Amino acid sequence: MERLNKYLAACGVCSRRDADKLIGEGRVTVNGKAAVIGSMVCGSDTITVNGKTIGEKNKKVVLAYYKQVGVTCTQRDKYAEKKISDQLKFPVRLTYAGRLDKDSEGLIIMTNDGMLIDAMMRGANRHEKEYVVRVDKEISQEFLEAMARGVRLEELSITTRPCEVKKIGKYTFNITLTQGVNRQIRRMSKTLGYEVKEIKRTRVMNIELASLKPGEYRRLQGEELQQLYQACGM
To answer: CA-CA distance, 83 to 65, in Å (whole number)?
Structure first.
């Protein structure tokens, strides 16, 4: 047996303090009855928060989520108009495995598995991330070749790694990166005289955005999830 607020925190729902607030507001039930602050629970109890049943404590959750433009990858930034932690409605508290900037959209992996997050964000592992990008003027062959070779970013004193780039439209191209430099595609394009208008991430490692629409998510499981863990050496 353990205190309900501690149990909810261990499940990744929220902090203990926030759990007490939810309990006080009558938004938590235990075995169908409204919980009270200080309640004791065990693993066999049925616990709901806002009408949704909470999974087993420490059970790992991995989601593919379509982040919308205007949503910031942050947990507590009070200046962010739309935080990803508020936009993704899921009963377990999840964290993003790799950021996607506010002005970009597309696939982001959300999970409560800290080891998976660490493995995915380790730059030395060179995990692939694929994007579709629209720029402000017609794409030239010279631009594609320069992007693929790697671009010197003087403001960061680095040269980006070679990458795969393919033209898919007059103003659009597909690019696959293996590093996570802040606003990398925008910086690379700007250095070569192009302004990025839209960025959509369509793949992270073996996980595809597929048919997800903005704001939607799907839970990863089965072979797809197993391949992700294997690719991360887990």
So the answer is: 14
Same domain, 102 and 215: yes
Maximum alpha-carbon separation in the chain: 67
How far is 93 from 60, CA to CA, in rounded Å?
11
Q: Select from 41, 58, 48, 57 the least CA-distant residue to 26.
A: 48
Which tokens hold the place of 88? Answer: 């993704």
**Residue range 39-81, pLDDT digits in tens:** 999 878 899 999 888 766 667 899 999 999 999 988 767 777 8
Residue-number span of the structural domain to which 41 is assigned: 2-53
Residue 113 among the catalytic residues: no
The residue annotated as part of the active site, out of 18, 45, 101, 103, is 101
**CA 69 → CA 27, 53, 102, 146, distances in Å?**
31, 30, 6, 28
Claim to verify: residue 168 and residue 141 sit in the same structural domain: yes
Identify whether residues 149 and 37 lie together within a single domain: no
Q: What's the token pair of residue 164?
A: 């795969």
Which spans in 77-171 are helix H?
A: 84-87, 114-121, 141-149
Rounded to an integer, what distance in angstroms lies between the CA atom of residue 151 and that of residue 148?
8
Q: How many residues does the chain have?
A: 234
The β-bridge relationship of strands 196-204 and 105-111 is parallel
